[in-house]
Write a structure and sequence with these properties.
Layout: H1 2-31, H2 35-56, H3 67-86, H4 94-110, E1 132-135, E2 140-142, E3 151-155, H5 162-172, H6 175-180, E4 184-189, H7 193-203, E5 208-211, H8 216-220, E6 224-225, E7 242-243, E8 246-250, E9 256-260, H9 271-283
Parallel strand pairs: 3-4, 4-5
Antiparallel strand pairs: 1-2, 1-5, 3-8, 6-7, 8-9
Helix pairs in contact: 1-2, 1-4, 2-3, 2-4, 3-4
């Protein structure tokens, strides 16, 4: 139930913020300067701007609390509430209060994965289980093929996720360094094969782009995210279920030497971290 609520929340929250941004602008144009409306506009537009930039100018990671955005949203929220209270019309501040609470929910509830530390499968020092996946052409691929060289397995939610795409783009810029170390770079997503094929064509780099059909491997590794897709993306062909962003690095014998099971989908490791881990392993 919690996952379904998150799916609905992230689909509606930006839309509600957009509605109040437009409503505030219309009110200010029609009725002149109104401090409560200005406060509401600051809060709502900041939220809208965050989500727009997330897709137009993707970043691979953010801070967990998004301090700059939170500051402007808080200023708008306080301005609207205080202005309305001075006019003895505090009920008019309800939209600003709702947006502020929605932002807090986004930061502290939606963005967070719980119980990831309880994962007993992905453990440094243990051998990575053999995984059976598919390539973009639906051919079976077993991870045993990667034995003999260090491997980086990056599980991403899909092409729809701007942070995932930015993270893959960031790793692609490290292609020569990865190639120099003979590293198998393996991207894995439960998304439809067509999306994975288009991603491979986009980068045209010799990485491994694999599909985890029906989240079989995600369930095997305990990184499955039930109803983790925002409500509405199903019309694009995505399944409602997905995987939690995860990075696993193995040595040439398939032993796990690094694992990042982030508890916040916006907080992810730098690609330089991957190279550092492998270089340290090679010096042992």
């Amino acid at each position: 139930m919690n996952a379904i609520l998150k799916s609905i929340f992230i689909a509606l929250f930006p839309v509600i913020a957009l509605y109040f941004s437009i409503a505030s602008i219309v009110s200010l144009i029609s009725n002149g300067v109104s401090y409560p409306q200005i406060g509401l506009l600051v809060s709502s537009f900041t939220i809208v701007l965050f989500f727009i930039l997330l897709f137009l100018k993707p970043v691979a990671r953010t801070s967990s609390n998004l301090k700059s955005y939170t500051l402007f949203i808080s200023i708008g929220f306080l301005g609207s509430v205080l202005s309305n209270s001075l006019n003895n019309s505090i009920y008019l501040a309800i939209p600003a209060i709702g947006l502020f609470l929605g932002w807090v929910l986004y930061l502290k509830w939606y963005s967070v994965f719980t119980q990831r530390k309880e994962n007993m499968i992905i453990r440094v020092g243990e051998k990575l289980p053999r995984l059976e996946l598919e390539d973009a052409d639906k051919n079976k691929v077993n991870t045993s093929k990667f034995t003999g060289n260090p491997s980086i397995y990056l599980f991403y939610r899909g092409n729809w996720c701007p942070l995932c795409m930015a993270q893959i783009q960031e790793i692609a810029t490290q292609y020569k360094e990865l190639q120099k170390r003979n590293i198998n770079m393996v991207f894995i997503s439960p998304q439809p094969h067509g999306y994975t094929k288009s991603l491979a064509k986009k980068f045209e780099i010799h990485f491994n782009y694999l599909v985890d059909k029906n989240n079989k491997v995600a369930k095997q590794l305990q990184i499955f995210s039930k109803n983790g897709i925002p409500m509405g993306f199903q019309v694009l062909g995505y399944d409602s279920n997905t995987v939690m962003p995860t990075v696993i690095i193995t040595d040439s014998n398939e032993k796990i030497i690094f694992a990042d099971l982030t508890d916040n989908y916006r907080v992810r490791p730098e690609p330089e971290t991957f190279l550092k881990i492998i270089d340290q392993q090679n010096t042992l």
